[in-house]
Design a protein that fits this description.
The complex is a heterodimer of chains A (280) and B (296).
Chain A (H helix, E strand, L loop, with lengths): L1 H35 L3 H4 L14 H9 L2 H32 L5 H10 L5 H14 L7 H8 L3 H11 L4 H9 L4 H29 L3 H6 L8 H12 L5 H36 L1
Chain B lengths: L1 H39 L16 H8 L1 H12 L3 H16 L6 H13 L2 H11 L6 H7 L15 H26 L3 H9 L4 H12 L1 H16 L3 H6 L12 H11 L3 H33 L1
Helix pairs in contact in B: 3-13, 4-8, 5-8, 11-14, 13-14
The chains are: A mainly alpha (280), B mainly alpha (296).
Main location (chain B): membrane
Pfam families (chain B): BPD_transp_1
Keywords (chain B): Cell membrane, Membrane, Sugar transport, Transmembrane, Transmembrane helix, Transport
């Protein structure tokens, strides 16, 4: 009896502590949203105003005119969709091959690909830039799209792991029935690994959407920039005029897509992240 | 016999075909640039055509380069956030691993900064750190503390960045710990409490050893990520901070390569960074091998 009571009290204490922490986690985001609705006077008010007197939507109209926010969203979408859709296809095809097909030097090739995970992007970005500038690709979206189309090693690695738990008998049976290798992939293997693919796609999508270093190297013209660069420029341009509601509105618009994706797919995302840590 | 070898030939043909794209991608976009970078680091490459071999001159200069020393020091200094994050994440995971009301919601709340764009997060924290009306100083004012102008003071800019990064990444480590804690067999705890072990003893002899592989994984991935810190520096302190006190190695490489067009020099620094990360990863592989042997 006593220990149950003790358990309850300690739970309550932990609950309170974690709640305080949660307030700290969420406060900056709430502040962003609240600031975006404020008038200039309220922005600099002391003590701070958490709930503005009137919700001022003006800035959410202004952001579309004061910077290339719309084209930023379009560019980011174009890059992420091209890369994740085509790259997922090439990655899962390769994962199937590495897991289920027999060919010479398979493991050597796989280890070679895996070794690229040890190479950080800054170590290859300079020659890559020179190479793409010789193709005339600077200030286009191509350098951000094309390498991704060839697949993602991380994804190949996880899908291959996942495929090892798929019994080979199903595949052998289809082979005897005369199915082609590609037919086996598209009709049997891919449907089987779909949950694992979905989890990896979401993670990859977020990584590309939030990328900053590669876009800042390649994209100069405002209308070519990705969403992340556009909001960074908003910040650089309008901070001098202390137009914080505008900056915060633009930042919130940039945060929103990922927030929605996360809240919708939170179970899958959290599970796939947890798996990546346990397996890694 | 003949049909079998035909079948095998067909299978290996498709095998190679299906892995062709990632292999080509690796050769073109990783291996080739890497080798080029390696060669470039021994030249006075300016990206415009000149690329004369100058031996180890770049590396000699780097070791004398005060800005590189500063950038390396800053990058390493900011890794102080790693142990802080790990301790907080483990405590949080221990708390959330209990049968308690609201754990799922907390998990989501703590994870929101992880999925948020680093650019947007940097922008809002830059403002939160503003000396006059930033959120951080207004919070400190509640306790009668007058906070500094965080990002323009060379002594506070790095701690400010560390706090922000811990805030942003805490949820990720928490999640990994939570997954590790949930995979610890329940009977271990039951056996321990039957034997009369107290909470601290259980933590020290069961929980901590069981989450050790995850701790190790987090440390290594954090070091690799921390070595490449760039976005928050670029946005929050666009010139590298007061007296270059927040510039990171990647920030300096980026400035040299794309600002000054000193591609050879920048490549040499990038190679040093690459070697550092390679060694850290290698250590992880070796340690992983050992720990899986230990388990057997």
């Amino acid at each position: 009896m006593l220990s149950a009571k003790k358990f309850k009290i300690s739970n309550l204490l932990i609950f309170i502590l974690i709640s305080i922490g949660a307030v700290f986690m969420i406060a900056p985001l709430v502040w962003t949203v609240s600031t975006s609705f404020k008038t200039k006077a309220e922005v600099f008010a002391l003590p701070p105003v958490w709930i503005p007197e009137t919700f001022n939507f003006v800035k959410y109209a202004e952001i579309w005119e004061k910077g290339p926010l719309l084209s930023g969203i379009q560019n980011s979408l174009l890059i992420t969709l091209c890369v994740t859709i085509i790259g997922t296809f090439t990655s899962s095809l390769a994962a199937y091959s590495f897991a289920k097909l027999r060919f010479k030097y398979k493991n050597v090739i796989f280890m070679l690909l895996l070794s690229s995970l040890m190479i950080p992007y800054p170590a290859i970005m300079i020659p890559q830039f020179i190479m793409f500038s010789e193709f005339g690709w600077v200030d286009t979206l191509k350098p951000l799209i094309v390498p991704g189309l060839f697949g993602n090693i991380m994804m190949i690695f996880f899908l291959r792991q996942y495929l090892t738990s798929v019994p080979g008998a199903i595949i052998e049976a289809a082979k005897i029935d005369g199915a082609s290798y590609f037919g086996i992939f598209s009709r049997i293997v891919f449907p089987l690994i779909r949950p694992a693919v979905a989890a990896q796609v979401i993670l990859w999508f977020m990584a590309i959407w939030n990328d900053y270093l590669a876009p800042i190297i390649y994209l100069n013209s405002p209308e070519k920039q990705t969403l992340q660069l556009v909001i960074a420029n908003f910040n650089a341009t309008y901070a001098i005029q202390t137009d914080y509601p505008l900056i915060m509105a633009a930042s919130f618009v940039a945060l929103l897509p990922m927030l929605v994706i996360f809240l919708v797919f939170q179970k899958q995302i959290i599970e796939s992240v947890a798996i990546s840590g346990v397996k890694g | 016999m003949k049909t079998k070898s035909n079948l095998y030939r067909k299978e290996s043909y498709y095998g190679y075909l299906f892995v062709l794209a990632p292999v080509l991608g690796f050769l073109l976009f990783t291996l080739y640039p890497l080798l080029y970078s390696l060669y470039g680091s021994f030249t006075d490459w300016d990206g415009l055509g000149r690329m004369d071999f100058i031996g180890l001159a770049n590396f000699k200069e780097i070791f004398m380069d005060e800005q590189f020393h500063k950038a390396s020091f800053n990058t390493l200094f900011m890794m102080i956030g790693i142990p802080i994050e790990i301790v907080l994440a483990l405590l949080l995971a221990l708390g959330l691993n209990r049968k308690m009301f609201g754990t799922t919601t907390f998990r989501v709340v703590y994870y929101i900064p992880v999925i948020s764009s680093l650019a947007a997060i940097s922008i809002l924290w830059q403002w939160a750190y503003n000396g006059d009306y930033g959120l951080v100083n207004q919070f400190l004012a509640l306790f009668g503390i007058e906070g500094p102008n965080w990002l323009t003071d060379k002594y506070t800019v790095k701690p400010a960045l560390i706090i922000m990064m811990v805030w942003k990444n805490l949820g990720y480590s928490m999640l990994l710990y939570l997954a590790a804690l949930q995979s610890v067999p329940k009977d271990y705890y039951e056996a321990a409490s039957l034997d009369g072990a107290n909470g601290f003893q259980i933590f020290k002899h069961i929980t901590f050893p069981m989450v050790k592989p995850v701790t190790f994984f987090i440390v290594v991935t954090k070091i690799i990520g921390g070595a490449q810190i760039f976005t928050e520096i670029n946005i929050m302190t666009s010139t590298g901070g007061p007296e270059y006190s927040s510039a990171s190695v990647v920030f300096y490489v980026w400035q040299k390569a794309f600002g000054n067009l000193q591609m050879g020099y920048a490549s040499a620094m990038a190679m040093l960074l690459g070697i550092f990360i390679f060694v850290v990863t290698l250590v992880q592989f070796k340690m992983n091998e050992r720990s899986s042997r230990d388990l057997e």
